[in-house]
Amino acid sequence: MVNYRYLGNSGLKISEITYGNWLTHGSQVENETATKCVHAALDAGITSFDTADVYANTKAEQVLGDALKGQRRASLEIFTKVYWPTGPGGPNDTGLSRKHIMESINGSLTRLGTDYVDLYQAHRYDTETPLEETMQAFADIVRQGKALYIGVSEWTAEQIRAGHALSKELGFQLVSSQPQYSMLWRVIEDEVVPASAELGISQIVWSPVAQGVLTGKYKPGAPLPEGSRATDSKGGANFIKRFMHDDVLERVQQLTPVADELGLSLAQLAVAWVLQNKNVAAALIGASRPEQVAENVKASGVVIPAELLARIDTILGGVVERDPAKTAEGAPASRAV
């Protein structure tokens, strides 16, 4: 079963393995299978579920809401996000303006079938809306009881500091950051993590298995597995391509003895690895089959000895991306519409 951790310096506990439905619900897998995956997560003790209005253009929220019907709401932590274009893509259907935030939270609550979300997250930083406007809108949503906590996703350390300062002035506090983080992608370690730890903010990390590369299923020089994310034309292949190089894939295969020593699969090792970071409250996992959920949950509570962590670093060597500037480089310079 899953262990639980506090989110930031709040009193909210979340499951350290959190179920996310990016790239799956409403697009890659049928709704019936998606529901089975959600129920597998519940059976494994996962109580925290992460989605976003942009996933499958709002369909993912609807699928998650349907899958959670009948569950005791107070026993769940439901997270969603706002920023990216939704609906027909009009000029105000994106960003972090007061208008878009207020309309988006109402739409998300309707689709999720709930009166509130536990965590509402700014999916990216909006360079075209004053930060004061954004944070005031979040403050009002908290006061209205539509969101209990506020977080951000893929913000730089500087942006997190500015947002945190404003939130405190407005009577609430940022409690979380949702960045990409894995053995291969460590760009948050030098700046985002220290700033977050100082401010009482936790990480809820996405792609701990590097879009599936750290499962070891992609072999150097071998054909891509049929039906894998690397063959997905709906978006999966685009996200995974940065890791699809033989030097990376060869080093991932060399992690197998480390995983074997711990009695873990490579995927479980990858999830357990991100949870060794004390600033990480949860690792987000997705699934296209229920059994994948049960396997990933086995990473909860695993302690990786220091000598094995050092061996992992030696094996991966120069293929690890550590440049903190990558967070800003990956952010949109302007709104999509």
From TrEMBL:
GO MF term set: oxidoreductase activity
Signal peptide: none
Keyword Phosphoprotein: no
Family: Belongs to the shaker potassium channel beta subunit family.
Acetylation in keyword set: no
Keywords: NADP, Oxidoreductase
Any one cellular-component term (Gene Ontology): cytosol
CDD domains to which the protein is assigned, alphabetical: Aldo_ket_red_shaker-like (cd19074)
PANTHER family in alphabetical order: HYPERKINETIC, ISOFORM M
Name of the protein described by the UniProt record: Predicted oxidoreductase
NADP-dependent oxidoreductase domain boundaries: 16-315
InterPro entries: K_chnl_volt-dep_bsu_KCNAB-rel, NAD(P)_OxRdtase_dom_sf, NADP_OxRdtase_dom
